[in-house]
Amino acid sequence: MKVPIGWLADFIHLPTRDPHELERILVSLGHEVEGIEEFRPSFEGVVVGRVEEVRPHPDADRIRFCRVDDGTVTRDVVCGAWNFEAGAVIAYARAGSRLGTSTDQPLEVGSRKIRGIVSHGMIASARELGLGDDHEGIMVLDELGAATEDDLGRPLEEVIGLGDVVLDVSITTNRGDCMGIRGLARELAAYWQIPLRDISPSFPTGPETSAFEVSISDVEACPRFVAHQVDDVRIGPSPLWMQLRLLAIGQRPISNVVDVSNYVMWELGHPIHTFDADTISGGQVIIRRAEEGETLETLDGAERPLLAGDIVVTDPSGPIALAGVMGGASTEVSETTTSVLVEAANWHPPSILATSWRLGLRSEASARFERGVDPNLSALATARTVELVALTSGGVPRSRAVDCYPISRTPWTVDLTARDVSRLLGPAPSFGDASALLERLGFGVDRKGGSAVVTVPTHRADVTRPADLVEEIARLHGYDRFPDLVRHGSQGGLSPEQSAVRRLREALVGAGLTEAQTLSFIGQDDLDALGLPLQDPRRVTIRVKNPLREEEAILRTTLLPGLMGAMSRNAARGLKSVRLFETGRVFMTRDDPEDPRIPFQPFHLAMVLSGPGVDAFAATGMVDLLARVADRRLGLRQESLPGLHPGRGAVVTCGATDMGIVGELHPAAVRKFGLDGRVAVAEMGLGPLVSAGPSWMLEDVSAYPPMVFDLAFVLADTVPAGRLLEVVEGSAGRHLESLELFDEFRGGSIPDAHRSLAVRITLRAMDHTISDEEAAPIRRGIAAAVADGLGGVLRGSM
Amino acid sequence: MDLERLAGVVGDARARIEATSDLAELAAAESETLGRRSEIAVARRGIGRLAPDRRREVGRAINEAVGTLTAAVEDRRSALQAEAENALLEQDRVDLTLPYGRPARGTHHLLTRTMEDVCDVFRAIGYEVAEGPELELAWYNFDALNTPPTHPSRFESDTMYVKAFDDRERSGPDELLLRTQTSPMQARFMEKNPPPVYVVVPGRVFRTDTWDATHSPVFHQIEGLAVDSDITFGDLKGTLAHFAREFFGVSARTRFVPHFFPFTEPSAEMLVWFNGEWLEMLGCGMVDPNVFEAVGYDPDEVTGFAFGMGVERLAMVRHGITDIRHFYDSDLRVLGQFR
Asked: Which of A512, A517, A541 is facing B106, going by the closest CB pair?
């Protein structure tokens, strides 16, 4: 909310006008200041002048020749405006004047010849002076109440008292009471402990009582409706002082009645609506919820379909305004309006919120009603509006307002104890000091010892509980004045799972992979690009109801599309060797086993690798690294897998559990992501890898030398090397220390469709040296097991 | 051989040994001077023929001579071997400034690092680390956190919801949404754990925000919660000020100003003085009694503080990053700088 400092000063005697000091204080009270702007239209050299004489220009129809008295001399000026005659008091920009606001490039005024007559300067319009958009005519200062003949020759700046510093204050959603200058002034008055200079509107009234009857059919929708009719109104510009204030807060002056409504909303924080009273039929105003199917043409000319929850102001002909959001076109105040019905009503905040958001009609008025406006303010707001409408339009108010307030809001009480305060704030402030702070903020405090009954003023609807009062106490006491105490807990460890995840990440980084974070969303195209068949579980997805883009409409079931997108972007930037991994949640449609109310969202770990020399083994090697770091025995079951190269893909197994996939992405998928060459990938559930950390306990090591021997077997190509290792391991006995496949050989004496695989076996015992005699039967046992289980033939002995 | 002659032979032999220039020459010289046919060997074999009274004297002299020459040969051999090795090593010289097989090393993502850094600051003062689901019930994200059913943050313009994917009716508090904050874990954690509670919760959150330099539909937060029988506003201030000093450096100054959040009362915002300006760094406050009631804690028995901070914001401020998209674009030239 824009807050001109000069306007604040209407309500309190400001001990300082330094905007930075005011900022510091407002921020300390919880009102963030987002900016400080200077509103300072500049018109160096412009003085108050009077038009002495006006006559037609001898050589032109559309401009006139004037003689202007600037208080010292009278000069010739040519003017294109027609909204004045001789005698008008005007803003005379003498030759050499500089016009414009502080932000614009100033306009320099000179003497120039126009159609044969030298014009010494100009008579300025509001827009030329940076005082608004009005360019229809020049500013007639005496009509605007801004200057009289007595001011002749005085600098315009001095006469109309211009310039202010404007604070841009952000009001939190709980503080509707601070959405007006008066509300913020009340906060500052509490801070400085000085009185608030409140307004008390007064105006002469006519004899007639109101011609309108008001009825409210839904008291929740409309707790209060105050209306006051003003007759004999003349619509015209509002006075300059009001226009200047509106300009300072960024509101465009329109006409006296509209400007007054805006002015009062800003001043008091209570939105005002005005109707052309003559356009309301039947003398009846009924406030009710809209009926499904009703429509209303709003001020902006749009035909708005209404819903049952919307609140409408109606007359017997139907809706005439969308309450709290926008007025209706048929009852709008226009240039020809002569009788105005001023409305200050109170509306149900959630209804206004729903309607304004649904229709995209968020306004200064809806922002206030959404936060909540004190219904007890409506009478004052009406009176202030009527006062200013009468003042600026010459209107005559009816003798009294119509005030429909079926259930009035009265102050409520909250019981507060000393313990309530001290358990949240500590020993200071004391309960006595706390009570005094509340009183400064306008709360009534009836204190007896360590407990008090606190009466809450009706503009503080946000305060209903002791904790709310404690915040008020803390705020005014000053957050800076509380001590800084470091609060220790007692459980700063990581869980075994959390430690394991950190180790896995560290290992992958150590192995040259870079961690990526990709979006949690994928698109249908991503699943298609991977070539997943329709029945693939990764296609069983949860979709976002309101996605930002179609490519981000699905919650990811796999991390690979995100990583492939990342690889593809890097390739496009010329990076051919890309090694990325990510850990993150994927989303399944089945229930979370620990909380069946929500879907299962396990963490996955995935990697993508490309570049010279990269093939499936780059990924299987990383899987092996993960197995070692996690102290897990992971196996590979090679098979043709969706999305992967049919001959270069495997399921990663852990015991009987399938926990992921590894291999090369199918070349078709690689191309779909705009890449070429081999791309090695792996993706697995992180949970099984980290569900129990590695053993903490040291295993003893043997002091005896190892027995090492190599065995080579001729095996059919259909036997995976991994199977050979399993069989050897299963038959080598308890002294097996390590096992390594170190050679694959084809050709020579090896039959077709066969290969020789050589393994190096290391045996070592804890308590003795293994002799050749002891090793011989082990060797024979292994050979027999390979022969029996895999049909492998031992190639001589080595 | 008389002793004088022996001395001469030894002198010559020694000169011969020391003059050798490679190991082959040395072997030849050794054979010549100490071998079976050498003068010394011949003389040794002739000792028996000497007069008994001279045998002892000549024998000792010959042994001495053999010892001297053997040592000379060994010395020379060591010297020649060293020379030979040096020559070989010289041939083995390489240019160490040539490029090498670079050991692989990737980088951690800066967001991961930042979250670990923040968690570690709190772990060091005894807070545990917990994580919660990203697809969450409206109950935990809003209702349990004292956010009224009509609050605009629930609108689709702020919060992402999901389409029905099975035959279950999910509405009101049961509606599924992508959590807009890590705060729902406050309620989940308290439901499962009796007080006292000291926990931080890092994680991914979502909002219906279109991409620009400071907005991303996906971002990260770290939530913190401390609940005990005697926690006051000063504990909140001191603990978070401690965090700021640990994270931004010992000279980091903090300032707390009132703010509004539905789930804390009093609420505050912490500003940190960094690079010459006060920056809004996190929201915090004393846990609202309604939150305690929602999770089954007695608001009359416990008090607590909660806070939430944006991980991207922390990282951007600390590392001078001006565009949030750097975190999600996975440009290796950027990620590689995060070490």
From this structure: A512
Any long-range contacts for A81-86 (C-beta under 8 Å, 24+ apart)? A81/A123, A81/A125, A81/A136, A81/A137, A81/A138, A82/A137, A83/A136, A83/A137, A83/A138, A83/A140, A84/A51, A84/A54, A84/A123, A84/A137, A84/A138, A84/A140, A85/A51, A85/A54, A86/A51, A86/A52, A86/A53, A86/A54
DSSP letter at B288 equals P
- With CB atoms and an 8 Å threshold, state whether B106 touches A579: yes
- Report whether pLDDT(A42) > 80: no
ipTM surpassing 0.85, yes or no? yes
Judging contacts by C-beta atoms under 8 Å, the chain B residues touching residue A488 are 125-126, 198
Give pLDDT, residue A129.
76
**Strand pairing category for A107-108 and A89-100:** antiparallel
Query: In A328-423, which ranges are E strands?
Result: 340-346, 396-397, 402-404, 412-417
- Cα(A201)–Cα(A93) distance, integer angstroms: 37
Distances (CA, A) of A369 to A26, A267, A272, A498, B310: 23, 15, 11, 48, 31
Peptide bond preceding A429: is omega within 30 degrees of 0, i.e. cis?
Answer: yes
Q: Which domains does chain A have, with CATH numbers?
A: 2-39+164-192 (3.30.56.10), 42-160 (2.40.50.140), 213-404 (3.50.40.10), 412-478 (3.30.56.10), 496-690 (3.30.930.10), 707-794 (3.30.70.380)
| Parallel/antiparallel/unpaired status of strands A32-39 and A164-170 | antiparallel
Residue A163 has pLDDT above 80, yes or no: no
Beta strand B197-206 pairing with B128-129: parallel
The pLDDT of residue A162 is 64
Tell me the backbone φ, ψ of residue A280, rounded to 5 degrees: -85, 125
From the list B231, B237, B336, which residue is nearest A482 (CB)? B237
Is any Cβ of chain A less than 8 angstroms from the Cβ of B275?
no
Residues on chain B touching A519 (C-beta within 8 angstroms): 217-218, 328
A493 at interface of B, judged by CB pairs closer than 8 A: yes
Name chain B contacts of A513, Cβ cutoff 8 Å. 106
pLDDT category, A102, cuts 50, 70, 90? very low
| Residue A297 · residue A303 · CB < 8 Å | yes
Indicate yes or no: CB of B157 within 8 angstroms of CB of A502: no
Q: Which of residues 205-244 of A touch B (CB under 8 A)?
A: none
